[in-house]
Structures are given as structure tokens and as C-alpha cells.
Amino acid sequence: MPASSIYDLSIIATTRNDNHGGDMLQRTLLFVKGLLYQTRKYKIKSELILVEWNPPDDKPLLKEVLPQPKSGDFLSIRYIIVPASVHTKYQHADKIPLFQMIAKNVGIRRAKGRFILCTNVDLLFSDKLMQELANRSLQPGTFYRCNRADVPQSIPYEKSIPELLAFCRRHILQRLGKHTYISLIAERVYAVFMYTLGLLFPWWKEAGLGRQPNARGIKMKLIRLDTDACGDFTLMSREDWMDIEGYAELEAYSIHLDSLALLVATALGKKQHTFPPSACTYHISHEDGWELAHPIKKLYQDIERPMLDWSTVRRAGVYLLENQKKLGINAPNWGLADHEFEEFSFTPLNN
Within a 13 Å sphere around the CA of 318, how many CA atoms are in the beta-carbon half? Predict the structure, then answer.
């Protein structure tokens, strides 16, 4: 495992070359091009770790089809290959071809950056967001979040990165995350309501939380937690990721596992910072995307693969916040830290 940091930022994502969603390779290509362009533009010395989980036998590895850094670039690219022989040892390996959060943990344990960003390969980062990362004001003890703005699947891939970013700004389908005026107003209204209710009815106890003296504070922490699409952007120091022990390595579909990481971080006293709405990620819509999938089709998808229910995650979150403790699920070798994987690294010539 890395003994010291040699990058300002490690960016971790996972995928496989199976073209899921219909155009995954095209989206991944755009993701890498965007990072190469923007890390160079804003001079962010960084590494991209792509964990290639359970790669198909009949397709080339991504290192063979994705762009490599050139002289003058600020982004190094590392490919870590987790083979099918590891994947098939997991329960439900036949239903879930890629265990996203375990794969991201593989990257976290091997990252060489002072700060680690876990994200996904169907995104572009807004220039405002990259400016936030470039100003070097990130602090340990804080986890960073941003809004996700969904953009059409028909994004014109042939355009340059600046042209595509302009397209994204003009074609936002929906926005997910806190720091919108509506969410801020809702928080304030709820806080006033709860305070007034307590004054008028001192005997009143909120169901499920009323027995705890700090019940209202826990409730507000849950409301303020920016869990919407947090798998697309969660950033904190390497030490903080180690402290929370990465993502919970439950052998299930990734939904809500990303939220559990934020709950653990909050329980351990780490503060949340959400960037302004303009500092967002742009998510390219696709056929199997969680938020924009057809609601009837999702009924069948949800019963085909094991996944967490939000009510279960919320109850676990209340427990963690009440007791200020970790989940205690992951083994000491989380992120398959005791495994040696095939790795390919590509570094700009000037680095």
C-alpha cells in the first residue's frame, strides 16, 4: 500500500468493457478525455485509477482503447485488473457482473493522492468544479459533495471538451443534490417546525428517535446529508477514507452503499461541504441509469439483484449517529488489500 502521497488528487472509478447501457465505452472515453483536458488546464497533479473489474474475455482491456496521457499533461492513468477468478468467489456474482463499491475500495487502498475522489465513468466535471479542486483549499476531516446534473444521452460526442461542457450547461434535464434554494429552504422550514412543536408540546416524542436526548440533532443531520447521487462524487482525504474503512463491502448492487459511507463519516465527526450548484458533475443519461430508468422496467431490475432498501440504511444511519461509531462490516483487508493485481500505468513524459 502507498506509504506517502505523490499526487494532489486520486480519482477512482470502476468499469468493464462490456458496453452496458448501450454506449458505456463512448462515455468512458469522454470521461477520460475530459479529465486529461481539465487537469492540464487547471494544473492539478493527479492520477486516475480505473479498476477494471471482471473484464470480459472477448473484449480488449480498456488500456488498449482509451487515450493515454501526453507530454505536458497533469494526469497519470493506472489500470488495476480484478480478474473473473476473484469476481466469481462472491455471492451473487452471476447476477451482478461488477461489484462497484468493492472495486472502488480496491482503488482507495492503492491510491497515491493526498485526497481521493470516488466517482463514475459517465461524467464530465464542470469547469467551476475543477476550479474548486484546483484552489487547494481541501481540508482533512471534511467530505466534499457536489450536485449532479443529468444531461441528454444524445450528447454530441464528436465536439471538443469545451464545446461539450457548454452543451451540458444548456441542456440540464434534472439536478440532484443539496445546495439548491429549495433544499435549503426546506431545511430551515423543518427546523422551525420541529422547534415550535417542541415548545408547544414538551411531552411530544418523535417516533423512533424520541428516546434519545439528541434526537432532533440526529434528524437534522440525516436531512442535511447530501446523499443524492453521492456515488458520482465523494471526496475526502486519504486518511479519512482509511478511517471510515471505505465503502461497506456488502455483496449487493451498489445502490445506497455510497450513502452508508457518508453516514459513517458523519458519525465519526467529519463535516460535510457541498460545492455551489455551478460546481457540479454532468451525468450522461443512459438506458440502465438508476434515476432516469423506466419506472416499470426498474420493478423487474430491482427483484433480480440483491440491494439495500433506503429505510434499512436510514435505520443503520440513526444507529451510527447515536453511537458515533463505524459500521464494523469490512475485514482488515478491505479493498482486497492482500491481493496482488495486474496493473498498467501510463504517466506523462514530463512527470
Answer: 15
